[in-house]
Write a structure and sequence with these properties.
Helix content is about 45%, strand content about 15%. With about 1200 residues, the protein is α+β, with helices and mostly antiparallel strands. Its main location: membrane.
């Protein structure tokens, strides 16, 4: 059986009978050998190929290698300005000007940087392991003498002949030589490249068809001259020189790396592009180094603190120089005559400069070195909790969510725009046949998800939409029964042969035959079970065939010229096998929006069956073919409002003479050669697809992945913008948009596309422009018109959707147009980009990221999504069944799209608030502590003397205040996860940056400044001339310093206790344990001789003195009462959303007053024009409008 004669494959096969004539002179081939077309491949001849030195097939997606790890990782660490500062102080600690020992300065820096580098190294090691798994896959390679042996992918070279078997991935970009089919065709799944799951047909040159077994490659020699490596997936230009003939090559013979061989036992191919030269790798981008916005802002804060540090150090050095010059000569007890250059009265300026360095090191506690280590530790623990979240565990695959890098946890809580792939991400590419309209009668009693939700919402009787939609979702599909995969249809009028009793049974018969015959699918019989599966070009066709089988019309066989159907109820003799001869097949494409098959039945009657978009079919109906048009149109509208994908079905009976005349013209167009061949075919096809008779319409429900509509709805309510970037054609993408409620009935669509070639050419002639300029002018006009339409819209509830195809996007992404395109896209509720290449996905992501200036998240599951995943601020890979390339390049991985809701709305919200509060608190406590050192130094004549013992200062950040702040960053919850999901508007606190804006940051800094003043001056006033011992002795510096330090420990730990909203035993242990640790330490430290002035200071000096305990209580209260007043005022007079929810939960109003709780939940969603909620609202308005028209006397009975 010659498979190439099926469908229209033979229409597109090159004519190589006179190959030498057609080869080099054919379109595009003349460029071979010129610039950009210099690659030469000596097939099966490694001796000639090796000198050309093309790259190996080894690939890597890591950020580092053995050589670059140390310098690049060091660079990453010292991009942090605080680390640069501490590096400088560590170097200065080796000089005499440092007030501390070198070890105390170098050791913490080495620990911080080393720990961060270790984490980076471990994360990159995981990427390396994934790469090795790919590089070590095995493939059969011709080793000579007609023998093949298995080698690793990474060992492949350009020119090698390989044998790829069924369901294997192609290891490199190959030229197809032959296949298990005698005509040299094979079926390829390109899901990893363009996201499409429907199979593509590739075919070899006729000249290489005899190379069909291993032995035939014993003496095989050929040369390929072709284009250089480039990222274009859909183009290829080259020549194939074989047996003294030259053949032109096109994309139809090229098998791309990471696509998969399907429904073909094996193929032979020769390697053209390897490794990073392959087109899929050309579409990938280098693994970027990503930093969160909070971390970048934290650098700015550190700049500010460093400025403050330099300022107070200048004040200190000037003060020191003045005191050295004026006062030191009179301080005879300091022996000024023996002073060195650090405090020389004769050179006060030099002494001041040396003291500036001392002060810069001394006041270094303003900049917390432990901040970075604490944040790294907190982020690792946050990532661990994300990985262990049982609610993001996929039972089918056994996969959990994985935070592949912990650097971006808080970014999850600040996402503004989500850019999503479609196939495998939003959809599982399964259609369910749900309803149909035949002869003006609607069949199918099942309901779509949109209809069920709207009905339940109406049944609740809540006009204000108080009923939470998650309650609807929980019960949405309880009563739905899927008869077989692909069919959820239920209507006894058509099932089990009952259709024969219907008044229009002849029309119903035609309808079922159109379903069973108008397609390009191939049946595959399972030898073990006898069941038939269909390999269809689109999931719609598969659903139609399964539905037809359930109705009693089973398509079971296809030959070169016929299709065979088993019909159960059309003959009194039972099941009848009927043969229909295929005369012509006019394929579906995005421009035609219809598909036609012309058949001859067993009675010799010629029938034309046509299915397509209703607008296209209705325009081609005959006058006597519009009998059911009004009723069918009404049904189509109802189906569309219910979120179903629709097609209209029609037919026509052709006379023999009319068909023969048309077919002759069609064959002339098909065999013509030239640039207008496609236009000729389209024109001739249009001639026969006229005078049609309408039969009915189909309605299928696109099976999205579980939970996708709910997830998109919740994300929309959380205020996120959602873009879909897909390699699918425009119609498919639009239908998916409807299925997942990114589009809905009544939404105004702005479609941007480049007009057809002839139209562009005509426009170019009129305006004296090149074709490309004319296309750009057309697109500019479309964008301008779209923007004007949005601006002039007066209805506040009007929603716009922007749909753009890949060709238009190529122009829209150019510098002179991209900002206009982006501005229009921002004004639209949803954006869908179709037919986009992987490179375009990355470019769109970059445009959104840079143009909007907000956090972007890209999510996908295939190799074609790697570019946008790496380009986005956050990349999320879906660990599906098709490869791991997206996961390997991602920052986070999940098993299904629906888990994105919890990843963002719960973990993102928590991580953002935790990190923001943690950083603000860190700066607060270090300012409160560091400034007291400055105050005392000023008080002590700018002498460089610290009021605190060195051990106190060393332990302040490391032990005594570290664990409470880590517990804040790991365990803090303003609300529970359930509340986060019920109140999605809470998420907007992240994108609006409510907890890390300058108001909040400066407020915390001000709090630290106030606390430092209160701690120092209150203690100074209390202890200045007050006796603290029984003998009447006043406090010395050690007693005052220890008391001040006690007050700081109490004040900052009480502050963090007031900041926390969620307490567990861990927080209690860490907060109160830190205070206890201070007393244990000072007690133990005071017993050692190394303590010096602090010897027995707690037991003998401070412990027995009531003033010590009174001062601790007074100063702690003075430091925290202002914050307590502030938070009380805010909660009472200007509460944030989570404050209200916390109060409701605390007073248990969610249990006692359900009405109020529902009302608050309905308010807690951002007003959105996309998502299931918006769609249900639109459906409710429509139902109410219909009820209003019918009159008030109508009673509605709800059937449960």
């Amino acid at each position: 059986m010659r498979w190439s004669k099926l469908y229209t494959f033979n229409c597109f096969r090159g004519h190589h009978g006179d190959a030498s004539a057609d080869g080099p002179s054919s379109d595009g081939a003349g460029a071979v050998g010129g610039p950009g077309f210099s690659r030469v491949v000596h097939c099966n001849n490694p001796g000639l190929q090796k000198p050309l030195k093309y790259p190996t097939n080894y690939i890597t997606t890591t950020k580092y290698n053995i050589i670059t790890f140390f310098p690049k990782a060091i660079f990453e660490q010292f991009r942090r300005v605080a680390n640069l500062y501490f590096l400088l102080t560590a170097i200065l600690s080796l000089t005499p000007v440092c007030p501390f020992s070198p070890v105390s300065m170098i050791a913490p820096l080495a620990f911080v940087v080393g720990l961060s580098m270790l984490k980076e190294g471990l994360e990159d090691w995981r990427r390396f392991i994934q790469d090795m798994k790919v590089n070590n896959r095995k493939i059969a390679v011709h080793k000579g003498d007609g023998e093949f042996m298995y080698r690793h992918w990474e060992e492949l070279c350009v020119g090698d002949v390989v044998k790829v078997e069924k369901d294997q991935f192609f290891p490199a970009d190959l030229l197809l030589l032959s296949s298990s089919y005698e005509d040299g065709i094979c079926y390829v799944e390109t899901m990893n490249l363009d996201g499409e799951t429907n199979l593509k047909v590739k075919r070899s040159l006729e000249a290489t068809l005899p190379l069909e077994e291993d032995e035939s490659f014993k003496d095989f020699q050929a040369v390929i001259r072709c284009e250089d490596p480039n990222p274009s997936l859909y183009t290829f230009t080259g020549n194939f020189e074989y047996e003294r003939q030259v053949f032109a090559l096109d994309p139809g013979q090229i098998l791309l790396r990471d696509s998969k061989l399907r429904n073909t036992s094996f193929i032979y191919g020769v390697v053209i592009f390897t490794g990073h030269d392959s087109k899929v790798m050309q579409n990938s981008t280098e693994s970027p180094s990503k930093r969160s916005r909070i971390e970048k802002k934290m650098d700015l804060i550190i700049y500010i603190l460093f400025t403050v540090l330099v300022l107070i150090s200048l004040i200190s050095s000037i003060g020191f120089a003045v005191r050295i010059k004026l006062d030191l000569p009179h301080w005879w007890y300091l022996q000024p005559q023996k002073s060195n250059k650090l405090d020389d009265p004769s050179r006060p300026a030099l002494s001041g400069i040396f003291h500036l360095i001392t002060a810069l090191i001394l006041y270094g506690y303003l900049i917390p070195i432990s901040l970075y280590v604490s944040i790294e530790l907190v982020k690792v623990l946050q990532a661990h909790f994300i990985n262990q979240d049982i609610h993001m565990f996929d039972e089918e695959t056994g996969n959990t969510a994985q935070a592949r890098t912990s650097n971006l946890n808080e970014e999850l809580g600040q996402v503004h725009t989500v850019l999503s792939d479609k196939t495998g991400t939003l959809t599982c590419n399964q259609m369910d046949f749900l309803k149909c309209s035949i002869a003006g009668v609607s069949y199918g009693v099942g309901s779509s998800e949109v209809e069920i939700a709207a009905a339940k919402h109406m049944a609740s009787g809540d006009d204000d939409h108080d009923m939470p939609l998650e309650d609807i979702w929980e019960e949405n599909n309880e009563d739905e029964i899927e008869l077989v995969e692909g069919v959820t249809f239920s209507d006894d009028r058509l099932m089990h042969g009952n259709w024969t009793k219907e008044p229009n049974s002849s029309t119903i018969l035609l309808f079922f035959r159109i379903l069973a015959l108008c397609h390009t699918a191939i049946p595959e019989t399972n030898e073990a079970t006898g069941s038939i599966a269909y390999e269809a070009e689109s999931p719609d066709e598969g659903a139609f065939l399964v539905a037809a089988r359930e109705f009693g019309f089973e398509f079971f066989k296809r030959t070169q010229s016929s299709v065979f159907v088993r019909e159960k109820h059309t003959s009194p003799n039972g099941t009848t096998e009927r043969e229909f001869k295929i005369l012509n097949l006019l394929e579906f494409n995005s421009k035609r929006k219809r598909m036609t098959v012309i058949l001859k039945d067993e009675d010799g009657q010629i029938l034309l069956f046509c299915k397509g978009a209703d607008s296209i079919i209705f325009d081609r109906l005959a006058k006597n073919g519009r009998v059911y048009e009004v009723d069918t149109t009404r049904h189509l509208n109802d189906y569309g409002e219910a979120g179903l994908r629709t097609l209209a079905l029609s037919y026509r009976v052709l006379e023999e003479a009319e068909y023969s005349s048309w077919n002759a013209e069609f064959l002339r167009a098909k065999t013509s050669i030239g640039p207008d061949r496609e236009l000729q075919l389209e024109r001739v096809s249009d001639l026969i697809e006229r005078e049609l008779i309408l039969v009915g319409a189909t309605a299928v429900e696109d099976k999205l992945q579980k939970g996708v509509p709910q997830c998109i709805d919740r994300l929309a309510q959380a205020g996120l913008k959602i873009w879909v970037l897909t390699g699918d054609k425009m119609e498919t993408a639009i239908n998916i948009g409807y299925a997942c409620s990114l589009l809905r009935q009544g939404m105004k669509q702005i479609c941007l596309s480049i007009p057809t070639g002839d139209q562009v050419a005509q426009d170019a002639k009129k305006s004296s422009l090149t074709t490309e300029q004319a296309a750009k002018e057309s697109l500019l006009s479309q964008i301008a018109n779209g923007s004007q339409m949005v601006k002039l819209e007066k209805d506040p509830d009007a929603a716009f959707a922007l749909v753009i195809d890949g060709k238009a996007l190529a122009f829209a992404l150019e510098d002179d147009m991209k900002h206009m395109f982006l501005n229009l896209a921002i004004e639209c509720a949803s954006v869908i980009c179709c037919r986009v290449s992987p490179k375009q996905k990355a470019l769109v992501t970059r445009l959104v990221k840079e143009g909007i200036g907000q956090t972007t998240l890209a999510i996908g599951d295939g190799a074609n999504d790697v570019g946008m995943i790496q380009e986005a601020d956050i990349g999320v890979g879906i660990s599906g069944v098709e490869g791991m390339q997206a996961v390997m390049a991602s920052d986070f991985s999940i098993s299904q799209f629906r888990f994105l809701e919890r990843l963002l709305v719960v973990h993102g919200h928590w991580c953002y608030k935790r990190i923001a509060q943690m950083i603000c608190y860190f700066f607060y406590k270090n300012i409160a502590f560091g400034l007291t050192i400055f105050y005392f130094e000023a008080f002590a004549g700018f002498s460089g003397q610290s009021v605190y013992d060195d051990w106190f200062m060393l332990l302040f950040n490391v032990v005594l205040t570290s664990l409470p702040v880590i517990s804040l960053g790991v365990f803090e919850q303003d609300v529970s996860s359930e509340i986060c999901l019920q109140f999605p508007a809470l998420y907007q606190q992240g994108p609006k940056n409510l907890f890390f804006d300058w108001y909040r940051i400066l407020g915390w800094m001000g709090n630290g400044l106030y606390s430092s003043l209160a701690i120092f001056f209150l203690n100074l006033c209390i202890f200045y001339d007050q006796a603290i011992r029984a003998g009447g002795q006043t406090a010395d510096m050690a007693a005052v310093g220890t008391t001040m330090f006690t007050c700081i420990i109490w004040a900052v730990n009480m502050q963090i206790a007031l900041t926390m909203s969620h307490f567990t035993w861990i927080q209690h242990l860490f907060v109160w344990g830190s205070i206890t640790t201070w007393y244990v330490f000072i007690l133990a430290y005071g017993m050692t001789l190394r303590s010096g002035d602090n010897y027995q200071i707690l037991l003998e000096v401070l412990g027995p003195a009531p003033i010590y305990w009174a001062a601790t209580l007074l100063v702690t209260a003075a430091c925290n009462i202002p914050y307590l007043i502030h938070i009380s005022y805010q909660r009472s007079c200007n509460p944030l959303d989570h404050h209200v929810i916390q109060e409701i939960k605390y007073l248990k109003k969610d249990v006692e007053d359900q009405t109020m709780w529902k009302r608050e939940r309905s308010k807690a969603r951002q007003k959105t024009k996309i998502g299931f909620t918006a769609r249900v609202d639109a459906k409710i308005k429509q139902i109410k409008g219909k009820l209003h028209k019918k009159g008030p006397s109508l009673t509605i009975h709800t059937v449960s």
